[in-house]
Amino acid sequence: MTFSNRRAARPLPAAIALLALAAAAAPALGPEERVQAGGADIVVPGYSVPSFVLWDGDSLRDLVVGEGGGTTPDGKIRVYLNVGTEGEPEFSDHAYVQSEGSDLILPGGG
Questions:
Q1: 75-95: pLDDT as tens digits
Q2: DSSP strand pairing (98-99 vs 40-41)
Q3: Could you tell me which residues come within 8 angstroms of residue 17 by beta carbon, excluding any fewer than 6 positions away?
Q4: 89-49-62 Cα angle (round to 5)
Q5: Burial (CB count within 10 angstroms: exposed 0-12, middle 13-18, buried 19+), residue 33
Q6: Domain ranges for the chain
Q7: What is the rounded distance in angstroms from the CA atom of residue 15 to the CA atom of residue 24?
């Protein structure tokens, strides 16, 4: 794929081409809103790191949130399954990711 400057008809530097691609692909963000699970606002102790992933194979993006830090020295990973639709997601109450029958614990560190 070649990007060119219309006025000079020469290739654009790679960084400018990447910025142009990023701007074209950037989603339009709306106002901030709270995400709910099971009818209540999601509140995560400590620091949270949210991400949308295809977790359970149903083609709906589920919410995965890392928690820990602050008053919680060790971290855990929460999974909120999308029980709604892709366009109107609804999230179930969370479950923790487990390993060998126990919650997966990620030791805090600095």
A1: 889 999 999 999 999 999 999
A2: unpaired
A3: 3
A4: 25
A5: exposed
A6: 1-30, 36-103
A7: 14
Beta-carbon neighbour count of residue 36 at 10 Å?
Answer: 13
Specify whether the CB–CB gap between 79 and 62 falls below 8 A.
yes
Residue 72: beta bridge partners?
Answer: 69
Nearest to 97, CA basis, from 60, 59, 51: 51
Distance CA 108, CA 68 (A): 8
- pLDDT tens per residue, range 21-55: 555 566 677 888 889 998 899 988 878 888 999 99
CA distance 91 to 35: 9
Place of tokens 């709906």: 60
Contacts of 48 (CB under 8 A, 6+ apart): 65, 66, 67
Cross-strand pairs, 4: 11
